[in-house]
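Researcher: For the record, we're logging two predictions in this thread. I'll number them. Prediction 1 follows.
Model: Prediction 1, sequence and structure:
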Amino acid sequence: MRVLGIDPGSETTGWGVVETEGRGLKLVEFGVIRASARESFPARLLKIFNGIEEIIARLRPDACSVEEAFYAANVKTALKLGQVRGVVLVAAERARLEVNEYSPRLVKQTVVGYGNAEKHQVQEMVRVLLSLSTVPEPHDAADALANAICHVHHAGSRDRILAAEARIKVASRTSNATRRRAPR
C-alpha cells in the first residue's frame, strides 16, 4: 500500500509518501508546497490544489491521509486551514483515492507514543521508523510523513479486524449449515 500523507497549511503544506514493504515501511518521497503570503488566498489555494494533483499523478498513491482540523485560538486561521483542507480533500477525491483523516493527537500517539509530543520528537520517530539518516525537514514534511505512517498503522489494524469479522461470519454460516436436528 502506498500512502500520501498531508499536513495542510496556507503557506506551507507538507506532503510525504510512504509504502509498506514486507512488515516495514519505505520512504518514497516527501516535500512541501510553498505559497507566498503575498499571493492572494485563492491563488495559494490553487497552487496547493495543483501541487497535490501533480504529486498524486506522479507518485500514484493508493490512499491519502490528511490531518484533521484542530481548534485554533484565531478563528480566521482555523477557517483558512479548513479551506486548505478542502482543496486537499477535493484533489484526493478527484483522483479516487481512499481518503482518511486523523487528529494531530492521534498521529503523535501512533508515531511517538505520546499525544502531546513535540515537533522534534515526531521528526525523530519518523526518521527511525523510515530508517532515514537524518530527520525530515522541514517539520511540515515530517508531520505529513507521520500522518501517512499513522494511516498505515490504523489501516492495517482495520484490515485485520475486517478479516477476522469475515472469518467469524463464514464460520457461523458453516456451523449453521452443518447443524442437524436430532430425531424425535
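Researcher: Logged. Prediction 2.
Model: Prediction 2, sequence and structure:
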Amino acid sequence: MNKTLKLKLLPIFFSIVTFCSQNIFEPAYAIPEDSAFNLVYEQIMPGIVSIEANLDIGVSSGTGCVISNDGLILTSLHVVNKARNIEITTLSGKTYKGKVVAILKDKNDLAIVKINANENLKTVTFGNSEDVKVGQRVLAIGNPFGFKGTLTTGIVSRIDYQRKKIQTDAAINPGCSGGPLLNLNGEVIGINQSIYNPDNNRSNIGIGFAVPSNYAKEFIANVKTNKKISGLN
C-alpha cells in the first residue's frame, strides 16, 4: 500500500486563507492558562496582518507577521508568489498595497512583502526554534477561511528534522499560511506553512507544519543586510 506523505500548501483561491501555532514557558508566577493565552493574543495581534493576493488562478489569502516598523511583512511564499496585486490589512482595518521584495525559494517557502504604512506598526518577536520541545504548548494565529484574527492552541506533536518542520496539532487551515506559531511567551517559534492532506480536502485534521523560526530569522537578517538571497518572482 502506498503510504506516500502528501502535504498540501494552503493558499485559498477566492476563499483562500493561511496557517498558524505555539511553545512552553515557565512563568515567575502562576496564572491560569486561559489568561496566558489571552495575554499572548493581545500582545501579538498588533503585529499580525491579513493578506489577499491576485494570482492567475484566483485570489490567494493568508497571514503575515510585521518584522519592521517601516512596513516589512513576513509571510509564506506560496501566498504571494507571482501575484499581480497584493493587499495587506492591518489590525486597525487599514489596507495597503504590498510589493514582494525578497523570496526564499527553498522548502522553507518564505517571502517578505513591503507596504508604505501611515500608522505605527508593531513588530513580532522571534524565539529560538532550537529550544522547541515535543509536547510543549503552542498557539497559532491566522485568518482561516477569512475569519480574521483566529486563535487556536495545541502542542508540538513532532519535530521533523529531515524536512526541517515543526509539526503541531493546533488547528491551522487555508488562510493561516504565513501566520505565527507561538510559545507562551508570545514569541514566534515557527511560520505556519502546510497541513497533512491525504484525501485532498482543505480542512484541518490535526497535523500541521511550520517553518522553524531560526530559518525565518536568517532569511530576514540576510535581506536587511543586503546579502545574496533567492531572486524575486
